[in-house]
Amino acid sequence: MRDGACRGNDLFDKKAALLLSAIFCFALAGRVHSWPLSQLVVEIGSGTVAEDGLALVPNANGQILLSVLDHGILPKSGQRASFSFTGTTPPVIYLIWRRNDSGELFQHGFATGGLADSYFDLNSIAEWRGELQSLEFGFLVPPDTQVTLTSLHIARPSMAERFKSVLHDWTTFRAWVPADINIYIGTAKNVGPHPAQVTGIFALIAILVYFAARPATFRLGSLMLIVFMLWVILDGFWQWRLWQQVSITRERFAGLDSLSKVVASEDAGVARLAYQAQEVVQAPNARIFVASQSDGNGMRAAYYLSPVNVFWHRHGPELPDAKYLRSGDYILVLAPSVIEYQREAGRIRFSRGDELAVIERLSSDRGVLLEVVK
Amino acid sequence: MMTVQLLLALLIVVAPAWVWLQRLVPAGLPARGILVSGYSVILGAVVIGLIMRCLSGLSVPFSVFSVGAASLCLSAAGALLPAGWRNENRCPFPQAESGLSNLQRLFVVLCLLLLAARLMSLGLEVATRPVTSWDAKQHWTKQARVFYEHLRVVPYVSLQDWLDLGGRGVYTNMHPGYPITAPLLQAWIAVAIGAWHESLVNLPWLAVWVAMGMVFYSQARIAGGSIGLAIGATYMVLSMPYMNIHVALAGYADLFMAASYLGAVASLYNWSRTRASWLLYLGLITGASCMLFKNEGFYWFMSLIPGILLVLLGVRRGLLVLASMLLLLLLFVALMPVETVVAGHSLAGLDIRYRPESWFPLYLSFFCTRQQAFSGVSGLAGYGSSAVVCPRGIAACCCGDVSLAAVSGTLSVYQQCDGCRIFYLPEQSWPAYNAGSGFFGICCTDAATPTGF
Description:
The structure holds 2 protein chains of 2 kinds. By secondary structure, chain A is of the alpha+beta class. Chain A has 7 helices and 17 strands. Chain A has helices spanning 2-29, 159-171, 195-212, 220-253, 258-264, 268-280, 295-305, and strands at residues 40-44, 46-50, 53-57, 63-68, 80-87, 92-99, 105-111, 117-121, 132-140, 147-155, 287-291, 309-311, 330-334, 340-342, 347-349, 355-363, 367-372. In chain A, α3 packs antiparallel against α4 (220-253) and α6 (268-280) crosses α7 (295-305). Chain A is globular and about 85 Å long. Chain A starts with a helix and ends with a strand. In chain B, α5 packs across α7 and α11 runs parallel beside α20. In chain B, α6 (159-165) links the parallel β1 and β2 (171-172). Chain B folds into 2 domains: 2-82 and 102-252, no CATH class; 299-448, no CATH class. Chain B is built from 20 helices and 4 strands.
């Protein structure tokens, strides 16, 4: 039995060595193409080459556009666009290109999630092919924000780079957003391989190795211990992210009272308007109709208006037919909205053409509270 | 002061269920105190919701005194019932060896430390973060705020009904037909501390997470698992990220339903092995509780029926009866009007048709994103090993769970709403399924490993 186990281990060692060699050879074979910063021309905004990279200042609209001088770019499958920034990272990066075989201009935007080192696999873009006539990169940032680009390249990543980026993805922290309750991916970007998949494969391999080694006494507990240890490693990534999140949450909300927490949250703008509206609306049986094209703003306003009796129709018309509104009702119109408010005339016009006489009770850059006086 | 108020709120929630469970659960069980405490939190959440509804029906406003008095009466009734009612059955369950080697002790301490760290991180997050998640603001917590401010349950109607009634005496939201147990729990916390607090109203989610661990651990022990095995498996269940996120970004009712379903599945599993009637009662009560948290709880409760029938009737007769029931069900579904609403859903609303583009999101959902692939794999492995170890009992009890998973998975391909959402049953209830399947696997594997680890 012992000999059998040794033979199994030897066999495994040889197979593992072969596998590692194959991975190493494949990694060496990976080709890297890149464009240095000196080949970039600032088309919109302004830029100066500094020690740490290309310092870019947007125009008054917060736009920066860079073009690449190299016209021999050949889009290929498996390429990846990589960007590194110091300081502010643009939330979205646009890739804009024109192909030789078509006069059409193509554009594709990528969310960076605010990460200093961001990359995007171009596999999924059907128009990324042929030969490029022009290639530009667009950044949209708040005006007066300086962006320092330290590296930019489009290349087919090597295995080593892929491994590095996967590890980077697994270990990079991104603060939670409300939508995170619907999904847990275990990576900073929603691209595979996911930690759970990889750990699952490792568990399977470990179990197969255990059986291949033919242990003298079979113990199911040993297998479970393998699975448990891998689980702890997998959980380590999640535990680390959770503590990072706790740290951010504590920094932002700890020590604040209930109301101050809302004001410190991402809902502050809408919540303030809702609280102000509550102060204006004094009648105990008042009704407020929340009108907005934005699901998020409508939902937040309806929540922070509670316990006032609120009507908000998600995905529906912003307001019900005019016949349902009566004098003394309130309408909280939040941007963006298709409700046309004629301030001078004291009227609102619905998208369906109905009109109502209103009095403005409150106004802010987020929206306006109107009282119906029909 | 606030800590005392919160502890009092918890005591009022837990006490009635705890007193009654003390009568129901026989003495001499391994981890009996943990079992009673865990189930008390889950069932207590249901009971407090029912108490608050009754008070509203009697026009008694919510307060610490009114809710506390009702809770006290229920507790007293349980304590003062004639002793003959008490379940005096001694424990018929096999006991795993209780002595631990140094290595096992180290393992237990490691698991407890990991769990303590998780409890601390989740506790800090819940107690600090204001209400964040979408559905909480859109539905559950918004309703809780209204209940708290009015100190009673107020009726919710559909948008059109609200317009027709002019909003007089009624409120509206996008899902007025959902059960109100979760909002009532939040309202109760606010009543107990005397103010609305954006963070503290979410504490019940942390409590139910702890309760899930207690239920899982104690039922694993009753199933014959060693201390080390039970605590290791409990850590694995409680550390599932998707479940943790539902605690940290509290506000969805799914976790309560998951806890109820876990309580039911675990109880019925042990009942299938021992036929102890109290386990059947416990399983049915917690299973039925699913319906008080979400409309979809009806389907989850129904999923328990096949397993129960198989245990009661035996595999051959049970399968025959189940096949007949399935035929009748299909006939009923085919003949009923498509607008008929069952537990909040109708065939017309589901728009069931084949959607081949759903296969990949379904794969991602099952193995990559919404849960740890690991728990899915370990659950499946658990079922596999259980089939070898105790084919009849486990196969019967697992039947409902596995068949529901298969049916809901298949339906996902027919009902997916868009590119990222899948059928609501697995989406909203994977934590329960995960925990249930993991539990089966762990218990059965333990039975095959007499020495534990």
